Amino acid sequence: MITEICKKAKAASVEMAKLSADAKNTALCRMANALEANAEKILAANKVDVETAKAKGLKSALLDRLALDQKKIQSMAKDMREVSTLADPIGTIISTWTRPNGLIISQVRVPLGVVGVIYESRPNVTSDSAGICIKSGNAVILRGGSDALNSNVAIGKVLRDALEETAVPVDAVQVLNSPDRKVAEELIRMREFIDVLIPRGGADLIKTVVETSRIPVIETGTGNCHIYVEEDADLEKATSIVINAKCQRPGTCNAAEKLLVHSRIAKKYLPTVIAALRKEGVEVRGDEETRRIVSDVKLAREKDWYTEYLDLIIGVKVVKNLDEAIAHINKYGTKHSDSILTADFDKAMKFIKEIDSAAVYWNASTRFTDGNQFGLGAEIGISTQKLHARGPMSVQHLTTTKYVILGSGQIRK
Amino acid sequence: MITEICKKAKAASVEMAKLSADAKNTALCRMANALEANAEKILAANKVDVETAKAKGLKSALLDRLALDQKKIQSMAKDMREVSTLADPIGTIISTWTRPNGLIISQVRVPLGVVGVIYESRPNVTSDSAGICIKSGNAVILRGGSDALNSNVAIGKVLRDALEETAVPVDAVQVLNSPDRKVAEELIRMREFIDVLIPRGGADLIKTVVETSRIPVIETGTGNCHIYVEEDADLEKATSIVINAKCQRPGTCNAAEKLLVHSRIAKKYLPTVIAALRKEGVEVRGDEETRRIVSDVKLAREKDWYTEYLDLIIGVKVVKNLDEAIAHINKYGTKHSDSILTADFDKAMKFIKEIDSAAVYWNASTRFTDGNQFGLGAEIGISTQKLHARGPMSVQHLTTTKYVILGSGQIRK
What we know:
The structure is a homodimer of 413-residue chains. The first copy, chain A, folds into 2 domains: 2-220 and 380-406, Aldehyde Dehydrogenase, Chain A, domain 1, CATH 3.40.605; 225-373, Aldehyde Dehydrogenase, Chain A, domain 2 (3-Layer(aba) Sandwich). The first copy, chain A, contains 16 helices and 16 strands. The mean pLDDT of chain A is 95. The longest helix of chain A is centred in the N-terminal third of the chain and has 18 residues, at 39-56. Chain A has helices at residues 2-16, 21-37, 39-56, 60-66, 70-85, 124-135, 149-163, 181-187, 203-212, 235-247, 263-279, 288-293, 302-306, 322-332, 345-354, 371-374; strands at 93-98, 104-111, 114-119, 139-143, 173-175, 196-200, 225-229, 256-262, 283-286, 298-299, 313-319, 337-341, 359-364, 381-383, 391-393, 399-410. In chain A, α15 (345-354) links the parallel β12 (337-341) and β13 (359-364). In chain A, the strands form 4 sheets. Chain A has a 7-stranded parallel sheet with strand order 10-9-11-8-7-12-13, sandwiched between helices. Chain A has a 4-stranded parallel sheet with strand order 5-4-3-6. The first copy, chain A, has a 3-stranded antiparallel sheet with strand order 1-2-16, with no helix packed on it. By secondary structure, chain A is of the alpha/beta class. In chain A, α2 crosses α7 (149-163) and α5 runs parallel beside α6 (124-135). The interface between A and B is large, with 65 and 65 residues.
């Protein structure tokens, strides 16, 4: 079964690579319209998923992610329309030059081919991923979590039906309709057909895919993000940044999970910032030094320093100096987003140079690591690996390049 | 043991990322000088390898690759100096922009970190890879074939001794000195320390690495390259291109392995081109149609169409038209380099658009797919995959990027 799906995707990808921007944009708008026109059908399917999940006793955070309503469907349609307005990366000539022997060499942007997306319980990922993949000229195979199966299949059917009337082949979007784990395991071995696999979800999902896939994977999302407050930071701004980075949306990967504070200002600053965090309902876990200053702070264990809480919890540590802060972040972080708050240019530059993360901030909240916030448009995830794409992955990161060489009979001497 | 080596490489990579272009270039020149100054030591070690290989009955093509002489060592030193003259990609600001909220976002080029290179019997790969990795600010762990162990260890020692007097940490270059397969197997699982693995060698080596590695791999090199002669091609130029692509250096990955000929000119052209190939000592294997036209051609089996001969052998097939040629190449090829010979713009554009390969040629020999021939400088391999880099991989392909975000207290609303 999977082989058939993969073959269809491959065939569709060949057609996709030939399409004009207009043809793809028309299809995206049709898909957006179809989502709105078929909202009732999608909500009915979603209701089945939500009720099953409730009966299984799923946590309320997960139920929130799973549940759709009219507003969320409108937002999916809006996002799809926004993708249609982005520049089409396909066919862009990145550079072109002539060699001494007269060969004209160009590097041209082309689609990847077939993209596999493996995700969890958020059904909007189905339409988001389909939109970004079509815009970038790829075919996509979508495999969502079993909790959202009915929702995903319903969204997939609406999108495919919409494609019937367009130049985009229907099989450019395929949703796996089996909740069987083995199907996913089979999918991630289809190297012959799938060009890249993108896991979107929690750390466990990503780890499993990375460790078992035979297809190149782009790791996304895990964010154990740090804010480091230097001794010369503007402490008022610092508190506003810390609160924003931790509390504005704690369940996102670019939320801060750890606060490091320079030892020289710890005594003065920790009581203030911890009080401010607690006022927002944040649980503070600190190292011994933090507990010497604010005695009722819970002790952070070694494991805490590695943890992405995705919740109103923060780990707080006093560091000797900038070097210790950098070493700590590079050791315990996930190479996602880290910020230094300082008035000192040299310290900021050292931090920027030595922190090995996708996004390094000076005097700003880590919450900006996001395709839209960066001004790149919709994203399919935030890459925390170094190959291919790093940071927010937008439409152009779902492409590759090809060298085109025009000659007039040249041979190599 | 491997863990220790990986830790040293990781530590060295942190220092490497901070180095100026001058510091790296000075080290490269010292390494080049050291190769020449220690040629006798290297040749003595190489002699041991060559004699052992001879005693084991290694094929002469492999012995050729393994054996060093003064000239080859001079060439290694020359290549190292050439790498020192290339532009340093590190620190390049790819783009920078200001967001409406005042955040200044820049995308900056940074080293990958630790590169693992797994290769076969050519000892010059040791110095080539070390040079390119240092230039791009990375630390490298080198694991060559057991046949070349003494040579590689000797070259590694010379390079590391040269680094002693420079700003580049000695552990930026480490050569594994164990011929044990298990050591290589352990190496390719060190995801925690190694950022990318590059196998350089034959199809079997690459397949093994791709299938067992836990580290992101860049596939290189396998080239089942095609030349397709359209009915309106300039047949005189065609023959010169076919002979060049097949015979100029048949053991390289960009050599042509297959010749496809449009059915309308097959009767006229095949006798000429096959005679020309045979004059150069090429064994021709053809499909049934080719054998109907030139009867003494050996029959090509299904397996032939998939095979990279790396030898004076060529597969010849008559195709109905351009569509069949494209379908054949995309099915049997290795996405390396393929060329169409035609006078017709539309046909060329169709071929260029639809052939899914790293390099697509119009009216030229496939032998140009090479970092130096493209004008990109020294290469560490030719990527035949789509992620990260495609085609000749030069110094800048051993880098990644980082977003640097400068703010003045911005928080997300």
